[in-house]
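re: the backbone from monday

yeah here it is again, tokenized this time
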């Protein structure tokens, strides 16, 4: 079904996922600028993470994300909260954004990256996120050129009325990265997807 507006991914109010945001009048996705050849970046395998490397990881911004299993490579922006407590979702469907009120990828806690599933123009950057499986790899390129390697542990779908905010955003003592998009059935009456797809992953290595 053709959509006549951009469908934003999700938002947070007081730490709780509450639904979908419809943004009118957006022309479409911005073109992504990728970080070098994907093959070259992904050929640099993970190494054991040292305390020194972890200190750098904790203070360095994410710039690019690669998810080979679903052919995703995207620049990573940053989004915070609006005055009303809603998360500022990416305006374009062709790139993702890191939620900058939480930890950076690689730091202790739950880093979160969000992306659109689609718009009226077609699939978004996270259209195939639901197809990831446990064991798939995610690579995040940091601003200083370091690579963080995450391994998917679980892919879950949650109703927006029963979203486990503490599990997704909370600090559980691990270095986790959660990816979020919309999913499930699309309600044409409300213009909202009824669910969220969440991919859970854990840091397994880093490459300098």
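seq for it, each position gets an aa:
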């Amino acid at each position: 079904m053709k959509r006549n507006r951009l469908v934003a991914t999700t938002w947070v109010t007081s730490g709780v996922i509450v639904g979908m945001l419809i943004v009118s009048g957006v022309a479409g996705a911005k073109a992504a600028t990728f970080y070098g050849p994907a093959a070259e970046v992904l050929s640099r395998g993970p190494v054991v993470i040292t305390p020194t490397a972890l200190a750098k990881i904790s203070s360095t911004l994410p710039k690019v994300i690669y998810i080979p299993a679903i052919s995703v490579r995207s620049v990573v922006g940053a989004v915070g909260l609006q005055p009303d407590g809603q998360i500022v979702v990416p305006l374009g469907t062709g790139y993702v954004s890191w939620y900058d009120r939480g930890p950076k990828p690689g730091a202790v806690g739950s880093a979160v990256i969000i992306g659109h599933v689609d718009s009226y123009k077609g699939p978004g950057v996270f259209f195939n996120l639901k197809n990831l499986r446990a064991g798939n790899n995610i690579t995040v390129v940091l601003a200083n050129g370091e690579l963080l390697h995450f391994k998917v542990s679980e892919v879950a779908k949650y109703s927006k009325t029963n979203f486990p905010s503490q599990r997704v955003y909370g600090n559980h003592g691990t270095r986790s990265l959660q990816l979020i998009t919309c999913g499930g059935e699309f309600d044409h009456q409300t213009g909202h997807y009824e669910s969220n797809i969440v991919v859970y992953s854990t840091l397994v290595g880093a490459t300098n």
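Confidence is low (pLDDT under 50) at residues 1-37. Residues 4 and 120 are 6 Å apart (CA to CA).
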